[in-house]
Amino acid sequence: MWPDLIQKAKEGGLDAIETYVFWDQHEPQRRKYDFSGKLDFIKFFKLVQEAGLYAFLRIGPYVCAEWNYGGFPVWLHNLPGIQLRTDNKIFKDEMQTFTTKIVDLCKEAKLFAPQGGPIILAQIENEYGNIMKPYGEAGKSYIQWCANMALSLNIGVPWIMCQQSDAPQSMINTCNGFYCDDFKPNNPKSPKMWTENWTGWYKAWGGKDPYRAAEDVAFSVARFFQAGGVFQNYYMYHGGTNFGRTSGGPFIVTSYEYHAPLDEFGNLNQPKWGHLKQLHAAIKSGEKVLTNSSSSTKQIGNGTDLTTYVSNSTGQKFCFLSNVNLEDANVDLQKDGKYFVPAWSVSILDGCNKEIYNTAKVNTQTSLMEKKSDEAENSTKLSWSWVSESMNDTLSGKGSFTDTKLLEQKAATVDLSDYLWYMTSVDIDNVTQWTDAKLHVNTTGHVLHAYVNQQLIGSQWEARGNNRFVFEQPVTLKSGTNIISLLSATVVLTNLYGQNYGSFFDLTPTGIAGGPVQLIGKGNVVKDLSSNQWSYKVGLNGEDRRLYDVHSPSGSNWTLNNRLPKRVPMMWYKTEFKAPSGTDPVVVDLKGMGKGQAWVNGQSIGRFWPAYIADKTGCSQTCDYRGRYHTGNCMSNCAHPTQRWYHIPRSFLNKDENTLILFEEIGGTPSPVSFQTVTIGILCGSAYEGNLLEMSCQTGHTISEIQFASFGDPQGTCGSFKKGSCEAANSLYAIQKACVGKTNCSFEASEAKFGSSTCGTTSKRLLVQAVCN
Ligand code: GAL
User: Fold this and answer.
1) Which ranges carry the SUEL-type lectin domain (predicted)?
2) DSSP labels, 63-113
3) Residue 239 Cα, ligand 1 centroid: separation in angstroms?
4) Which residue, judged by its Cα, is nearest atom 11 of ligand 1?
5) Taking the CA of residue 623 as centre, how many other CA atoms within 13 Å lie in the half-sphere pointing to its CB?
6) Alpha carbon 327 to chain centroid distance?
7) Does 425 reside within a domain?
8) Is 202 near ligand 1, meaning CB less than 6 Å away?
9) Torsion of CA 616, 622, 626, 630, to 10 degrees
10) Residue 205 lies in a domain
11) Do residues 33 and 155 both lie within one domain?
12) What distance in angstroms lies between residue 705's CA and the mean position of ligand 1's atoms?
């Protein structure tokens, strides 16, 4: 997907691509590196360069990024004597080895700008300043060491540290956030840079879909350049998918769409992509003035400011006129004109007397994306085969190592799997004491399945945002030996609040670590099993046998008959399917499934959990862009599965036969599962008078119908436009003629093109709603 995504970023008006480097992926085992396939970051940077763009290398190697364990490999945690992100020799040696490795690879490939490469900037650590206090003096010396270590690598381009207000010089301290216009770097000579402008927000299991309006993102960017900013990066411009088990805290789903300008599948998220593209063009039209000028800001009214940049060489001017109020403003700049500046918006004025852009006036299409069923696939129903997870060994208490305590899960699994079996046995002679007993487990894992004497007695998972719960279920023990097998599953490796962020986040225990695990008998008699002899097994047998891999020799055990097990925990399912035709992105709808992991042709497409339903409350039908955005604002998808559709990149697919394999942990029904494509369903165009209306379906689709068109004073939002009190009579016909049957069309919003309207001299607007087929 890289070339297409990079191209779309370039067309969107970006000059540089910023990316993190993920330590856990590149060094999954100590000193065993992987830079192949999708981990070939050198190739990524070369593609960026071929596209004519610059690059920004954010090594971290702690990256946060809602990535598992913040990007740290878990073997690091297991090195004796190590302390992460502080002045600890063992950690620093590992960090230096990895950072040097990455830098050396870039140097060999001649990727740094002085070598003729695209990389113009690099980052060490990540927002350490926000969490460094509890590390005390060791934190201060660590950040100093980070700076010296990075500088010693001589990369020939500047290093930055984000959110590090005491960044040692010559590290450049940069800002991250929804707004950074007020930010001042710690050195007055440093450029004012914004490394993460959060275009939306992430989504956690149980959470809803975030939405940050295009008008507000544009406002934040324009305010930043108005206030002297020189470098602004979107986080994310494309968030994509957390394939495999890479999702991190807080309890992040497989999709990392982030409401970014390029959606999870690489489609343009419109109007955000287009509105920002026009903003970039407007700002760049003033580039010569902005980069060689002095500026001054004048307060026009309360909350209304005019910032004037005057070129030192030519005297040319470029202005930003902002209104940070929640009410619209009419500004009279005398000889330089009169301007309508909507609430919470910035107008960009070329020559300080001509509006070329306003952040709240959207002249870009809105695309309502749709999932479409593939006809070919629909005509042949999927046929499923299945095999149950073999648990004969674990349900009989047999593992691969033992201990007399309840182990911490990530130390035991080294994160090779989400799963760890904890097994023990207990001898009962007085049965009456233990007939109506309870099994009590205190866990810091996310999910627990408890089996006693081969029977599942209960499953439980954490309530959202809480990494710790108590499991207590009735159990009847028998005389003699009873076997207790507990399967603990993690969803991400995080701290107690489910975050991979914060001081000492890495030390939070996961799994049944320490317990206690107890049996509670009649009269509340407690038998504490925590110091029993425990037997352990990392991962599932199906994982060991690589059941997810079509070429695995154990693949022959699948059963194909019409007694497909439904809602049965611990099942593997398999089906064959044809890739949907065309070029639209492909998703699998996992409606009906519970929780687990999915693979296509042996590649993991991530964890699924459609049984996890988003909160019922907190969604809004409409969204007001005005005012400071905060997470939780303008949410949608209440009371639906947090994530129902899972992305299958076309590059994972064969032309003919493909295999989908699901591991279902809590019980689900695969019969409703289907493959779909993602494309534009409804398309809405908007253009203010004098601007060009441009509309475009996805490649391979055409506009089949114009459902609404009015040049005048129409109202409403895409999907519910209404005519106003005046319009040009032939609005609909003119647009039908220009657009129906075409993939793209454009039309100028003017009386010259539409003929005269009944609106008189008031400024008009064109709104169009069309269908793509
Ligand atoms: C920042 C962090 C990013 C990401 C972001 C939230 O604080 O640097 O890596 O986690 O928050 O999406």
Assistant:
1) 687-773
2) --TTBGGGG--HHHHTSTT--TTSS-HHHHHHHHHHHHHHHHHHHHTT-BG
3) 12
4) 65
5) 20
6) 33
7) yes
8) yes
9) 20
10) no
11) yes
12) 42
Tell me the percentage of the chain whose pLDDT exceeds 90: 92
Question: Residue 529 is inside which H or E element, if any?
Answer: none
Whether residue 120 is predicted with pLDDT greater than 90 in this model: the reply is yes
Number of domains the chain contains: 5
Q: Closest ligand 1 atom to the C-alpha of 201? A: 12
Q: What is the pLDDT of residues 126-185, one digit of tens each?
A: 999 999 999 999 999 999 999 999 999 999 999 999 999 999 999 999 999 999 999 999
Catalytic site residues? Answer: 127, 196
Span 631-656, average pLDDT: 96
Cα end-to-end span (Å), the chain: 24
What pLDDT, on a 0 to 100 scale, did the predictor assign at position 264? 98
**CB distance 18 to ligand 1 below 6 Å:** no
**Whether residue 378 sits in one domain with residue 322:** no
Mark out the alpha helices in 336-427 (DSSP H runs).
375-379, 392-395, 409-413
* Atom 10 of ligand 1, residue of closest alpha carbon: 65
Cα–Cα distance, 552 to 287 (Å, whole number): 58
User: Do the beta carbons of residue 439 and residue 473 sit within 8 Å?
Assistant: yes
CA of 25 to the centre of ligand 1 (A): 18
**Which of 398, 395, 405 is CA-nearest to residue 528?**
405
Report H helices in 120-271.
136-152, 214-226
Boundary-marking domain end, from 500, 515, 539 = 539
End residue of a domain, out of 494, 522, 539 = 539
Using CB atoms within 10 A of its CB, is residue 645 exposed (0-12), middle (13-18) or buried (19+)?
buried
Q: Is 42 exposed, middle or buried (0-12, 13-18, 19+ CB in 10 A)?
A: middle
Which atom of ligand 1 is the closest one to the Cα of 63? 9
Amino acid in position 29: Q
Q: Which residue has the tokens 């878990």?
A: 74
Q: Is the CB of 174 under 6 A from ligand 1?
A: no
Q: CB-based contacts of 278: which residues, under 8 Å, 6+ apart?
A: 357, 363, 364
Residues 13 and 139 in one domain: yes
Same domain, 456 and 590: no
766 touches 693 (CB < 8 A): yes
Ligand 1 site, residue 128, Cβ cutoff 6 A? no
Tokens of 76: 């690091």
- pLDDT for the residue numbered 379: 55
Q: Which stretch of DSSP H or E encloses residue 642?
A: none
pLDDT bucket at 493, cuts 50 / 70 / 90: confident
DSSP letter (8 states) at residue 548: T
Atom number in ligand 1 closest to CA 162: 8
Q: Indicate if ligand 1 lies below 6 Å from the C-beta of 535.
A: no
Measured CA to CA, the distance from residue 339 to residue 300 in angstroms comes to 12
Percent of the chain with pLDDT over 70: 98
Same domain? For 743 and 759 the reply is yes
Q: Output Rg (C-alpha) for the chain, integer angstroms.
A: 29
- Model pLDDT for residues 151-164, shown as the tens digit of each residue: 999 999 999 999 99
**How high is the pLDDT of residue 496?**
58
| DSSP-assigned letter for residue 711 | E
Closest atom, ligand 1, to C-alpha of 127: 8
Q: How far is the CA of 126 from the centre of ligand 1 (A)?
A: 9
Task: Dig out the tokens for 216 from the structure.
Answer: 């507000």
Cα 8-10-15 angle, rounded to 5 deg: 150
Q: What is the pLDDT of residues 6-56, one digit of tens each?
A: 999 999 999 999 999 999 999 999 999 999 999 999 999 999 999 999 999
Indicate the pTM of the whole model: 0.96
Residues 523 and 593 in one domain: no
Distance CA 586, CA 15 (A): 29
Cβ count near 434 (within 10 Å): 23
Q: Which residue has the CA at smallest separation from atom 12 of ligand 1?
A: 65
